[in-house]
Write a structure and sequence with these properties.
four-stranded mixed beta sheet; about 40% helix; alpha+beta; about 230 residues
Length: about 230
């Protein structure tokens, strides 16, 4: 068994050792959420626990030899995001039970986010309200990319937001589906945003604001964006 615990939550060690049992016996699901994600209540906290399905043999071999598992990557990337000042689930633990030489049963445990809205809701907003939200999100995405964080498959449902003290704030959920490292190029940044699969008005506002935030020509962003969608 492998157990990595955020020192802040060391008091939950005994509970986390048995997270697989708690996940099955007492976990509850949220509407419209993947069945691999469940909520658990313990010690005054609501934990969001993600269970990772069995992967291909190639991926399992890579994890065995040199690659971090997706659950461990989720934990490490969430920690890095928070260190850089980005909101995401606070990582509590990574837990892995080894089934055999090549297979593990893995869980990422985080504190459930208290953000109330997903970016998907922006699709139905009035134009003026949506424009303000998208300009804020574009600056958030630009900063994320400048700091070296790139969601591999950007999804509106994985980006949460709230209006706090008169400003839009964002939190990203799926840290297992993210690259963490060097500054993201304009081309890769636009490709990631194109995965949101929004309407033309949404995209136009987002591209314009993202280009301003990254200090590049809007036409360049538009070119990369259209190429990614084709």
């Amino acid at each position: 068994m492998t157990l990595i615990i955020n020192p802040k939550y060391e008091r939950l060690r005994d509970y986390l050792v048995n997270i697989a049992d708690h996940f099955e016996d007492t976990g509850r699901t949220l509407p419209m959420v993947n069945n691999g994600i469940r909520l658990l209540d313990v010690d005054g906290l609501t934990l969001c626990v993600k269970h990772y399905d069995r992967t291909s043999w190639r991926n399992r071999l890579a994890v065995r030899i040199y690659k971090a598992s997706k659950g461990k990557h989720s934990y490490n990337c969430a920690a890095q995001l928070r260190e850089r000042g980005f909101a995401t689930q606070e990582p509590v633990a990574y837990v892995a039970y080894r089934r055999n030489l090549m297979d593990q049963n893995m869980y990422f445990v985080g504190v459930f986010s208290n953000y109330h809205h997903s970016l998907h809701e922006a699709f139905g907003m009035p134009h003026s309200e949506r424009a303000e939200l998208l300009e804020s999100f574009a600056h958030y995405a630009a900063r994320l990319h400048e700091e070296g964080f790139l969601p591999i498959a950007c999804s509106a449902d994985n980006i949460l937001f709230d209006r706090i003290d008169g400003r839009y704030r964002f939190s990203i959920l799926d840290t297992g589906n993210m690259k963490c490292g060097r500054k993201v190029s304009i081309q890769k940044g636009c490709k990631s945003l194109a995965a949101l699969q929004a309407d033309d008005a949404f995209n136009t506002t987002l591209i314009r604001a993202y280009a301003v935030a990254r200090g590049v020509n809007e036409a360049e962003c538009q070119k990369y964006f259209e190429r990614a969608k084709s």
